[in-house]
Amino acid sequence: MTDRLTATSYAVLGLLSRRDHPISGYEFTAFADRTIGYFWSIPRSVLYKELARLEALGHVAGTVVTQQRLPDKRLFELTDSGRAALDEWLAGPDLPSTRPKNGFLLKLFLAHRMSPEALAELLAAERHAAEQQVTDLGAVADRLADRPQSVFGRLAALYGLHQAQARLRWLADADDLLSERSAGRTSHHRKENDR
């Protein structure tokens, strides 16, 4: 086991720092999904491994709770060591920028191999995802508007909202460009057939 903490380690510590009581892994997953899930995904399998690793390092404390009709559960909370590690990381320089992987853009880059119908479906799926994010993140930002203690969560939601809105504007531009391209090909084929 390495002592080096990753960005996901700090995400876990940071989320625990926002809780005023211990939380189970199941509850943690739901909490992460509704807070940072729009920009930082932590799969359940990764979360449980990370909680165990942080506990072994002394940054998280876990307590087993016996339940009557359900399996025992483990509740986690941040330790003083975890708070210190999180604060040190937050006070440091920005994270090095990582290159995101985007399956949509990869498929778009290779769209010369796609049928027009498949390309239309790809763009429609991306549009639907962006529209859903606009709806979801707009609701989050609105819900947090009157909660001064949630200003940073609201800022993160607004960042995601603006990105989703930018994707929708880009998709409209892409539709225009592809329509022009298609019209150009159609007129080129007509000229060929007129000869």
Describe this protein's structure.
Helices cover 65% and strands 7% of the residues. It is mostly helical. The chain has 2 domains: 7-91, Winged helix-like DNA-binding domain superfamily/Winged helix DNA-binding domain (Arc Repressor Mutant, subunit A, Orthogonal Bundle); 103-194. The N and C termini lie far apart (73 Å). 12% of the residues are buried. The mean pLDDT is 89.
The biggest beta sheet reads: 3 strands, antiparallel
Question: Any idea how many domains?
Answer: 2
- Portion of residues in beta strands equals 5-15%
H-E string: HEHHEEHHHH
Number of strands: 3
| Number of H- or I-type helical stretches | 7
Distance between the termini: 73 Å
Residues in helix, %: 55-70%
pLDDT below 50 for ≥5 consecutive residues: which ranges? none
Q: What strand line-up does the widest sheet have? A: 1-3-2
Radius of gyration, taken over Cα atoms and rounded to an integer in Å: 23 Å
Estimate the mean pLDDT confidence. 89
Coarse shape: elongated
Structural class: mainly alpha
Q: Summarize this, please?
A:
With 195 residues, the chain is mostly helical. It has helices at residues 7-17, 25-35, 44-56, 80-91, 103-109, 116-144, 151-194, and strands at 23-24, 60-65, 73-78.
